[in-house]
Design brief:
- The complex is a heterodimer of chains A (420) and B (329).
- Chain A is an alpha/beta fold and 420 residues long.
- Chain A contains 13 helices and 14 strands.
- In chain A, α5 links the parallel β3 and β4.
- The longest helix of chain A has 28 residues.
- In chain B, α1 links the parallel β1 and β2.
- The chains are: A alpha/beta (420), B alpha+beta (329).
Chain lengths: 420, 329
């Protein structure tokens, strides 16, 4: 008989893979693939609303006009025409980028990975919002980073709290490698950092030599209120690297995003990208280019306006439903983006609540996935972009029902809502 | 040539594991050859799928509720389709941890003392009885959902203050929960292959020891994550006689619960070397990282052989329980 261990390759893996774990949440989420489940869990844009005839025309023009280029390798930094449309999009968001400072990436997610691998050695400190984007968690885990959260409030990221953390780190003799933030319609928090706070953050970055990675996937999805200047546009001291993506304003399926950053950083990121995938798909870059260049940019702007109409109605449906069915939840109504963050009484663990909710055919993302420090267990992220208003309403009604069941049970067990 | 419906997925909390088990069974059937394997992601159309699918046999790769609680077994019997594993009735009893433990105790198989509660009863009558009975049982305790696998919703409770939250957690997975005395010791898992039909003897595979690497509890994440848990087979540093007793106890549990085809018995061996059966899984996972796979690997039984064994048993049992091979039809 031979001696067997779980994984015969285990003694060969790099240490970093052991920090990357599967989770209860992920496996529970397998059920959300079922059609009967109302999933408020994903971050999916409504690609079904995109005109298929337009897509067919775009693809066909690429095949006929740019076939060889579409099928060939491309430059690591991206093909020039797509860099030009990226500049158009950034200008629409109030920035004035230099095309030479842009690298096209395979979705915004690749920027998170490349940036982490470019800057973080094992044990290095990186500052992230609390909650932070759940998708960045594996990037930080893969490089064995020490993530320090700065809690968000309704006005987004508070520079005073960032400064306090920097002071604390200084006392420990630690320099944070960078701060990762989504200032506008934060995922999963739904909040937007105010202009005054942004101005102070950029100042602070200059004063304290803090590098900021600004992730901005959602700012064009605004349903009310005036746009707020990006950190990148406020930055005068090359302290902000900027991440953009076509995922939410066109399609996540094309996997085209970008980083705009100071030249020395870009050179390093370029080397990392060569190792990762040589280049992002030229075919997909051409698809983005065709759409964003058509009608002199008029077509994509009209599409984003249409998306905003669709998502505004869904956001409103969710906010109304929470007011009606989940009065125990604390939340901030987001002015844009795709997510709403709700916090329930402390006695509720939202990972357990998810199991109960799935029995009722509804899913959300438990808050614990947005923190690396074990907090956030009473919160949840709710997505409103992927389901029509009536399904959103029904989904929230069911989550409210599940929540009330747990609260009733807690009371029967003699616990108050704070869990004491 | 048999047309095999591999029933997997479904909507239990263990859907992801079940899909992996199903995919591996499909691979094994391809490797064996001579079968037509059809993966069926179980949904509300299953009765129709089984009735019209012209299957010869169903391979049950469904874990958790819907797969181990008699539902799918009863459906197969209704449609007169032979199916793998434990029969309708015993399967559901084994899956229900409290019912299983009562059967084990009745058969003289050691299992830790326990009490059960339902969410309904707690809401009706409050938590007074729970606290009293838990105190009587004595801390530390383990709180588990009665009908869920893979350690989902299972928590250790060191003192009375932690009990309510653990009950809430377990009750998220099932309205009935089990509160069990925590036996400290080493955790073993014993896979047993049943006799085919009524012929022969069960085969007890060597025990696998489960050693959590980081967490102090072998939880869901550890169970399904590479590198989080070390499984050793045979266990290191065990007295041969103690191991043999654990295997005998596992077999006694397997027989007491009337498991057929294959099953996995999880035990704790306490500091005195006494084995305690924690639970018996009538449809254990067959993923690459599953305990059953580790035990099979240790004795050099390929998955293909287990699948062949289970199909042969299904057909043999089908003949005695009115399955499609019933010649009167």
């Amino acid at each position: 008989m031979r001696r067997t261990i779980l994984d015969p390759y285990e003694d060969r893996y790099a240490r970093r893979v052991f920090g990357m774990r599967s989770s209860v949440m992920r496996d529970l989420m397998a059920i959300t693939q079922r059609p009967e489940v109302i999933s408020l869990a994903g971050g999916l844009p409504d690609t079904g609303a995109f005109d298929r005839e337009v897509l067919a025309e775009l693809v066909s023009r690429i095949a006929l006009d740019d076939g060889p280029m579409a099928l060939q390798y491309g430059p690591t930094e991206g093909i020039r025409p797509v860099v030009d449309v990226i500049c158009d999009v950034m200008r629409a968001e109030g920035m004035d980028p230099d095309p030479a400072n842009i690298i096209v990436t395979t979705g915004g997610q690749q920027v998170l990975d490349l940036f982490a691998r470019t800057f973080l050695d094992p044990g290095d400190v990186v500052i992230a919002e609390g909650p932070t984007y759940p998708g960045v968690v594996p990037c930080f885990n893969a490089v064995q980073a020490d993530v320090r959260h700065v809690p968000l409030d309704a006005d987004g990221l508070d520079p005073e709290r960032v400064e306090a953390l920097l002071d604390e780190l200084t006392r420990e003799g630690i320099r944070a490698k960078y701060l990762y933030t989504i200032p506008t319609f934060q995922n999963p928090g739904g909040c937007t950092t105010t202009l005054a706070r942004r101005e102070r953050l950029v100042e602070l970055a200059a004063e304290r030599d803090l590098l900021i990675l600004e992730d901005n996937p959602y700012s064009l999805l605004r349903y009310e209120g005036e746009p707020v200047a990006t950190l990148r546009s406020l930055d005068q001291h090359e302290r902000v690297a900027y991440l953009g993506t076509f995922s939410k304003i066109f399609s996540p399926g094309v996997r085209v995003g970008w980083i705009e950053a100071p030249t020395p950083i870009l050179q390093r990121v370029n080397l990392m990208k060569q190792a990762a995938d040589l280049c992002s798909s030229p075919f997909m870059q051409l698809l983005v280019t065709r759409f964003f260049a058509s009608d002199d940019g008029g077509e994509w702007k009209a599409w984003v306006a249409r998306l905003n109409d669709i998502y505004r109605e869904r956001r409103d449906a969710m906010v109304e439903a929470i007011d009606e069915f989940m009065p125990m939840a604390e939340f901030t109504s987001p002015q844009g983006g795709l997510f709403l963050w709700a916090t329930l009484p402390e006695v509720i663990d939202t990972t357990d609540l998810l199991a109960r909710a799935l029995e009722k055919n509804v899913a959300f993302v438990p808050g614990a996935g947005a923190f690396l420090d074990g907090t956030g267990t009473s919160s949840m992220r709710l997505n409103f972009s992927a389901m029509p208003p009536d399904r959103i309403r029904e989904g929230i009604r069911r989550i409210g029902e599940a929540t009330n069941e747990v609260l009733d049970l807690a009371r029967s067990l003699g616990l108050d809502e704070g869990g004491a | 040539m048999a047309r095999v419906a591999i029933l997997c997925g479904g909507r239990s909390h263990e859907r992801a594991v079940s899909l992996r088990t199903g995919a591996r069974v499909e691979q094994a059937l391809h490797a064996i050859g001579g079968h037509e394997a059809v993966l069926v992601d179980v949904d509300e159309h299953l009765p129709e799928t089984l009735r019209t699918g012209e299957f010869d046999v169903a391979f049950i790769a469904l874990h958790g509720r819907g797969g181990e609680d008699d539902q799918v077994q009863a459906l197969c019997e209704l449609t007169r389709l032979p199916y793998t594993g434990t029969r309708n009735g015993p399967c559901g009893a084994a899956f229900h941890k409290a019912r299983a433990k009562r059967l084990l105790l009745a058969a003289g198989v050691p299992t830790p003392a326990f009490i059960t509660f339902s969410e309904h009863a707690i809401e009706q009558f409050g938590a007074g009885d729970v606290r009293e009975e838990a105190d009587e049982l004595g801390y530390p305790l383990v709180v588990k959902p009665a009908r869920a696998g893979s350690s989902l919703g299972t928590r250790f409770v060191d003192d009375a203050a932690d009990l309510p939250r653990a009950l809430i957690s377990a009750m998220s997975y099932d309205s009935q929960v089990l509160v069990e005395r925590h036996v400290r010791g080493r955790e073993l898992s014993v896979t047993i292959l049943g006799a085919i039909g009524d012929e022969g003897e069960p085969r007890v595979l060597p025990a696998v020891e489960i050693v959590p690497r980081h967490a102090d509890w072998f939880d869901y994440e550890s169970r399904y994550s590479h590198g989080e848990t070390e499984f050793t087979c045979p266990p290191i540093g065990f007295d041969e006689a103690v191991l043999a007793r654990a295997q005998d106890t596992a077999r006694a549990a397997f027989e007491a619960l009337d498991i057929s085809g294959y099953g996995r018995v999880d035990l704790i061996v306490d500091e005195a070397g006494d084995p305690w059966v924690l639970e018996v899984s009538p449809v254990p996972g067959l993923t690459e990282t599953s305990l059953v796979s580790v035990a099979l690997d240790a004795v050099g039984i390929p998955l293909e052989d287990l699948v062949t064994h289970l199909l042969a048993d299904a057909v043999a049992q089908g003949a005695t329980t009115g399955g499609a091979s019933d010649t009167e039809e």
